[in-house]
């Protein structure tokens, strides 16, 4: 059953309205659904629905609500990926796979060794990247669409990342001992003593050239937890996916 996303305001008493022109075209022209057909709809905030289409026009599709449930496939933790911007189409792979694995948001970062310059047209890139996230969410039937935020530089990252998360994981190729598992278990133990839990986690991944020595020192100075991804050096497009999978395995599965 195909899944679509609406704003919470589109959910009415007993029915849902779909007004996005692209969704209407997909329902009527691609899927060729008719009145009486069923689809899944997420309100992008808390609930997912099964609705029966009963009014179809070129401007609006209205469906009767048959079932309402809390999200069944959303992680309980919120993981943000701060990704050093890679070359070429690598970011598209990173977005697609991390969305499938449960990322909450992705923030591209210009770091000291980032090859891509800020002079590029990032408005178009962000539109394309967000579309990739949208498509990945529909395929894996998550409840929310992770947002691809506007790029920031490493200075902005240093200033904001510790304030917004319970744990900041800085995945560093020169860290030889401390693993993600060790960091997560230590942080969980601390939270349990406080009768709390890890809810917001940041993963910081460097670009192709890795982190500069200056960046590595700054991450440690601001209190980020440094961890290794294993004995081998992973490509930037692999590192974030691997780190997220490890976090989800430890905290969600």
Helix content: 25-40%
Largest sheet: 7 strands, parallel
H/E element string? EEHEEEEHEHEEHEHEHEH
Radius of gyration: 20 Å
CATH topology label of the largest domain? Alpha/beta knot
Number of helices: 7
Q: State the shape.
A: globular
| Text of the CATH class of the largest domain | Alpha Beta
Give the tally of β-strands.
12
Q: Please report the distance between the alpha carbons of the first and last residues.
A: 25 Å
CATH architecture of the largest domain: 3-Layer(aba) Sandwich
Give the DSSP E fraction (strand runs of 2 or more residues).
15-25%
Summarize model confidence as the mean pLDDT.
93
Q: Structural class of the helices, strands and pairings?
A: alpha/beta
The number of domains is 2
The residue ranges in which pLDDT falls below 50 over 5 or more consecutive positions are: none
CATH homologous superfamily label of the largest domain: SPOUT methyltransferase, trefoil knot domain
């Amino acid at each position: 059953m195909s899944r679509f996303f609406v704003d919470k305001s589109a959910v009415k008493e007993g029915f849902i309205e779909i007004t996005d022109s692209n969704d209407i075209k997909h329902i009527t022209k691609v899927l060729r659904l008719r009145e009486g057909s069923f689809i899944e709809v997420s309100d992008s905030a808390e609930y997912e629905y099964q609705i029966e289409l009963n009014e179809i026009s070129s401007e609006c599709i209205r469906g009767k609500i048959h079932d309402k449930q809390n999200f069944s496939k959303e992680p309980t933790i919120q993981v943000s990926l701060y990704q050093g911007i890679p070359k070429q189409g690598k970011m598209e792979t990173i977005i697609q796979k991390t969305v499938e694995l449960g990322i909450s948001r992705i923030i591209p970062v210009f770091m000291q060794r980032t090859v891509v310059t800020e002079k590029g047209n990032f408005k178009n890139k962000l539109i394309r990247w967000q579309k990739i996230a949208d498509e990945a969410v529909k395929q894996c039937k998550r409840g929310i669409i992770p947002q691809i935020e506007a790029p920031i530089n490493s200075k902005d990252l240093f200033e904001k990342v510790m304030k917004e998360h319970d744990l900041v994981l800085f995945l560093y190729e020169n860290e030889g001992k401390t693993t993600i598992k060790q960091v997560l278990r230590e942080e969980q133990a601390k939270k349990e003593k406080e009768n709390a839990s890890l809810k917001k986690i940041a993963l910081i991944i460097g670009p192709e050239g890795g982190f500069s020595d200056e960046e590595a020192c700054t991450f440690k100075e601001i209190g980020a937890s440094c961890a290794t991804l294993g004995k081998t050096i992973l490509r930037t497009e692999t590192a974030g996916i691997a780190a997220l999978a490890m976090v989800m395995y430890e905290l969600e599965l």
